[in-house]
Amino acid sequence: MRSRRLLGQAWCVTDERQTETPPERDTDRDSLMTLLGGRTSAVDASLPPVAFGVGWFAFGESIAAGGAAAVVVGAVIAGWRLRKGDRPLAVLVSLLAVMFGAIIALRTGHAADFFLVRLVTNAASALAWLVSMAVRWPLLGLVVGTVLGQGRRWRRDPALLRAYTRASWVWVGQYVVRLVVFIPLWAANAVVALSAAQLLLTWPLVAVCVAVSWWVLRRALPGDHPGLRHPVVP
């Protein structure tokens, strides 16, 4: 009787161990898209340029109509973001970028110049990410580390520093892809095509960029690393 009881206890312990699921690594739980807020910002960035293209085409290739449509949509998005609790400075910068693009197009008389701000910001972003990797302060690590409240601890972890550097190349590629597509369309004054490209190369491209950089991060970290939230500092 006693042997059966002991056997039953042993079976219960074994069964509990078998049903326990190993704790997920932070890199499996955390969503890079959530940390970076990429989905909302990407969708917001794509709507004003689309509105510009629709307004420009619908009103007989009128730059004024396209600019007005873009600014109205940008203002509506700004109001929605402020109501949602986004930082006022970030909202203001986004709206000013739309207004600045409309002013440039009106001044030059070329509708495609509305997208010049996008071209410049993508080129500057690619350069900034490259420089950050060259000086061993990859921007991906800075952004994620700041969001996670890690200060500079992530940089003192050699594995995390290497992983963030490798994953940052994916983000450089994102900006380069946009430039390769946008520059010929801008040179050809293809406003409708630019609007469509802006839509396709914003949220969908950001989603692909996040997924690929997430995969690179996971592959670059050693198997026994505790994850993004827990830098291994000597």
TrEMBL record:
Transmembrane segments: 56-77, 89-106, 126-148, 169-187, 193-217
One Pfam family named in its UniProt record: DUF3159
Alphabetized UniProt keyword annotations: Membrane, Transmembrane, Transmembrane helix
Protein name (Swiss-Prot/TrEMBL): DUF3159 domain-containing protein
InterPro entries found in the cross-reference section: UCP010219
